[in-house]
Design brief:
single chain; Rossmann fold; Luciferase, domain 3; 4 domains; 5-stranded parallel beta sheet; 5-stranded mixed beta sheet; 26% strand; binds adenosine monophosphate; AMP-bd_C; Amino acid adenylation domain-containing protein
């Protein structure tokens, strides 16, 4: 078992230096190239002053170069923060501010975005490195270096001071109060999952693995390190294919993929557009999904067309690293109403269904779902309050490191011993696979001067998006506020996937007996009011 994540790549570089490690379109890197360039980057970062525990933001689009950057950063004993390049600078700036990064790595495409973020941040002492030969002078940057002479640095990795309990990366997830939460993930957290998954899925050098998810989502951690751990090939899916269901299917076919891993929305999208033929994808061995419920009709659709493929449901939040439980579907469900369990815990993990007093609830009863085990993050970045609320001591534990994470999910244990996901206990939703806290969306609208009041609710849909985000609002007196105007204002604060698509202007928001906004009533209004603007 490796001690650090970069050891996976170094080992494969010894075993198969000329084998392809990662590819996107016409750009690809062998294990040998990946190892050499990431080591050189690590030496360069160290020479620029990067030290153990420092953080480096990655503003690099999904590409083989992004994998070099990740490995280079961890080889420099630092931690990387993959930045969501589609989010507005006003949303990214607070995340970057609280991460207190030592530096940032950019590519030619993202220099302007970094410029915009730094304007939001103001004073800063970030060291900026470009992974490409691009001119950085004359901008806001306090101190710059570029990688143009990186090949003069040693091609062997430097000595590491890091241990498995050091942070490898920080991922940000939507937070209920408006500011996204940073989830630090250690080398040990990722290795625990990857080791289980490599054994369970029998990943091997001949595997051709999809890299569908964007690199700031934790599912991509499995794509990247699962591939490197096995000496397989990572085939990054070009993001523009996400709007082209035929293109996604053709990608699987023409690249001869053996494993597909994505959020269910993508599978729904392909099923809805009927792009998979009978016995399609002859090389495909596994189809995995995680992040939300895969509707049973979609599963039936795929299982009937692809009888040679194994289908596995993975479940888990970012805070517990990639996935904590799994269920490989033994046979095609008989009907559309058969629920698909989230199954049993992966090795080293435990799923607990508990009541308000942290006692196990009897089988069949719904309780709060907690996770215990090797994947648990050390806690939210620089937020002891949120950490204390979500990461609790294991009841009766004598070791303070023995913790359980409150997922916010509701679940039940079936008579079959398997865990079934029931829903959420809070305002977090998934829309098109994106984790969104409606609290963050609402906070963005509350910050708009033109509104007196507003409330954001979600409605489940049959479509691939999973949930529609709906905004009811009361304009400030004398102001005329249209949905397109609100959308424009909010798009400066929220990523596009979190913007409401249905709107309702009201004179006042409905309240319940306690004076709180009556959200069930609002949901009903949106459900029945077809005039709500889209
Ligand atoms: P994220 O941190 O983006 O991975 O989101 C974690 C949340 O996604 C979980 O707490 C669940 O609400 C949901 N989730 C993850 N996997 C599944 C699954 N297989 N089935 C249903 N919901 C899931």
């Amino acid at each position: 078992m490796p001690k650090l994540l970069q050891d996976y790549a170094s080992r494969q570089a010894e075993l198969r230096p000329n084998a392809v490690a990662v590819t996107l379109g016409r750009s690809s890197l062998t294990y040998g190239e990946l190892e050499t360039t990431s080591s050189q980057l690590a030496w360069r970062l160290r020479e620029a002053g990067c030290r153990r525990g420092d953080r480096i933001c990655l503003l690099i689009p999904k590409s083989p170069a992004a994998i070099v950057a990740m490995l280079g950063v961890i080889k420099a004993d630092a931690a990387y923060i993959p930045v969501d390049l589609a989010s507005p600078p006003a949303r990214l700036a607070p995340m970057i501010r609280i991460s207190e990064p030592w530096g940032a790595l950019v590519s030619a495409d993202t220099v302007m975005l970094l410029d915009d973020i730094l304007k939001e941040i103001g004073e800063h002492s970030l060291k900026i490195g470009s992974i490409e030969r691009c001119r950085l002078e004359g901008r806001l940057f306090a101190s710059c270096f570029d990688m143009s002479e990186v090949d003069t640095y040693p091609s062997d990795p430097p000595e590491y001071e890091n241990t498995a309990d050091d942070i490898a990366h920080i991922l940000f997830t939507s937070g209920s109060t408006g500011v996204p939460k940073g989830v630090p993930i250690t080398h040990r957290n990722v290795i625990a999952f990857v080791e289980w998954a490599r054994n369970y899925f029998r990943l091997e050098p001949g595997d051709r693995i999809s890299g569908h998810t964007a690199l700031h989502f934790d599912l991509s951690t499995f794509d990247v390190y699962g591939t490197l751990s096995a000496g397989a090939e990572l085939h990054m899916v070009p993001p523009q294919l996400n709007l082209l269901p035929h293109g996604l299917a053709e990608f699987i076919r023409s690249n001869g993929l053996t494993q597909w891993f994505s959020v269910p929305s993508v599978l729904n999208f392909m099923a809805k557009h009927d792009v998979v033929m009978q016995n399609d994808f002859p090389t495909l061995k596994r189809m995995l999904w995680c992040g939300e419920v895969l509707p049973t009709p979609t599963l039936i659709h795929f299982m009937q067309r692809l009888p040679h493929v194994r289908f596995t449901n993975l479940y888990g939040p970012t805070e517990a690293t990639i996935a904590s439980s799994y269920y490989t579907v033994p046979e095609c469900p008989r009907d559309a109403l058969t629920p698909i369990p989230i199954g049993t815990a992966c090795a080293g993990e435990e799923l607990l269904v508990l009541d308000a007093h942290l006692n196990e609830v009897p089988p069949g009863e719904i309780g709060d779902l907690y996770i215990r085990g090797a994947g648990l993050s050390p806690g939210y970045w620089k937020d002891p309050e949120k950490t204390a609320a979500a990461f609790l001591p294991y009841p009766g534990a004598s070791n303070p490191k023995d913790r359980i994470y409150k997922t916010g999910d509701l679940a039940r244990r079936g008579e079959d011993g398997l865990i079934y996901f029931v829903g959420r206990a809070d305002t977090q939703i998934k829309s098109r696979g994106y984790r969104i806290d409606l609290g963050e969306v609402e906070a963005a609208f509350h910050s708009l001067e033109c509104l007196e009041e507003c409330a954001v609710v979600a409605l489940p849909t049959d479509g691939f998006e999973g949930n529609t985000i709906c905004c009811a609002y009361v304009p400030r007196q004398g102001q005329s506020v249209s949905p397109p105007y609100l959308r424009r204002q909010a798009s400066r604060l929220l990523p596009s996937y979190a913007l409401p698509t249905r709107w309702l202007a009201m004179e006042r928001l409905p309240k319940n007996a306690n004076g709180k906004i009556d959200r069930p009533l609002l949901r009903n209004l949106f459900r029945h009011d077809t005039s709500a603007e889209t």
